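DM from R.C. (forwarded with permission)

"hey, sorry to bug you on a friday — could you get me a structure for this? deadline for the figure draft is monday and I only need the backbone to look sensible"
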Amino acid sequence: MAPTESSTGRARVARKGVRPAAPITPHRLPAGEESDWEGIQGSADGTGLRIAVACSRFNGNVTRLLLAGALGELDSRGVTGADRTVVWVPGAFELPLAAAAAARSGQYDAVICLGAVIRGETSHYDVIAGQCAAGIQQIQLELSLPVVFGVLTTENLDQALARAGGSAGDKGAEAATTAIEMANVLRLLERARPGFTADDEPRRTTR
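My reply, with the result:
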């Protein structure tokens, strides 16, 4: 069996007669009012919500696209410029700290973290990606506030660009939708009681 070269320069053995797996298209059930599933579901309406967006400058050619997708989605969901704040940090490793400061301020209903960590020839990728994810998870669990992981972890630049509004979707826009849905879910859960559904909650109006 002859070795083939991967995008990262590592030798990989090709197995004869085995076709590469077809790409899997992720699918998420529609949010809130877009579905008829029983139970508490967060609305995709962001009217009146206050959202902070922390964005990494590292790999800025990718993160600027993620930010554009997130802001565009927030606009379309009713989160106005007056109700959101964009915070730039040096890299993905700094995202949890900025997110924690925003979450603890009491000024926001959700925080979105955007970044791009692309694998290189050292273990730096694994350290940064893992610590960033763990930090973001810790903040939202400690503070009971949605802190959304919108950080791409890819093998190469092409994969990152494909997921920043390209052929593989827009992870920035998806992160914005997730933030809105989870902020609305938590608002409902604060008022929940046995038998409670989203239909029991009056519609929110613009402040």
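R.C.: lifesaver. Strands lie at 3-5, 11-13, 51-56, 84-89, 110-118, 147-154, 164-166, 169-170.
me: no worries. The first strand starts at residue 3 and ends at 5.
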